[in-house]
Amino acid sequence: MILYNVSTSSGIANFARFLTNTNTTTYSAADLYASVNTYLHYFVNEILEAMDGWDFKGEIGTASLVANQQEYTFPTDILKIKRVEITYDGTNWYTAQPMDINMRANATDTTSIANDFNKTNPYYDAYDNSMFLYPIPDAAVTNGLKIWYEKEATELSAATDEPTFAEAYHKGLSYGAAKDYFQKYGNAKASAMDVELQTLISRMKVFYNRKMQDDSYMVSPSFVDYEYGND
Prior knowledge:
With 231 residues, this protein is of the alpha+beta class. Helix content is 32%, strand content 20%. The protein has 2 domains: 12-54 and 154-209, no CATH class; 58-151, no CATH class. The chain is built from 5 helices and 8 strands, in the order ααβββββαβββαα. It has a 4-stranded antiparallel beta sheet with strand order 1-8-3-4, with no helix packed on it. A 4-stranded mixed beta sheet has the order 2-7-6-5, with no helix packed on it. The longest helix has 22 residues, at 29-50.
């Protein structure tokens, strides 16, 4: 469903106003779209927690290593890190393991870091909007840093914008916006909207939990016939 359809009631905003019996005056576009986008981010997070190996919002970012530079900024749309790889020589790639600076007992000066870490077993520390590499690169390498990540949802603003998750669950954003409207005015219908919302979220999580159907499965027998030897 698109955000708003000027000719039919098939849009997310249209359906929310249908549920609440409102119009553009009683439920302004600014308030309605703000609520819809809040639930958009919530739905994306729920999908990421439920999904299988299918990367719903998967993205790969690269950055060039700079000699003697330890800090590298994350992509602006990053939501969740999946994997980090580094090449210090432009040829050999190694998976970087996450760490926390609180785990380190030794000093953090460049000499100590160089002594304690090696390029074949790198680490990174995620800190605010950046990552710090261990060891620190000693040479420039073009596109020497690669990060697999799940990205933030792009908020809906234009009338024809549409959520990127499965369309069967788009109505959930309308239920969420309707719930917010009823809660604002202390209307008991908020509970009914919450029931519809949670039901749809539950079904959506089941769908994304088993979206990749070609996984291998192992079937075990429910009964094992043991053969005993003679005494």
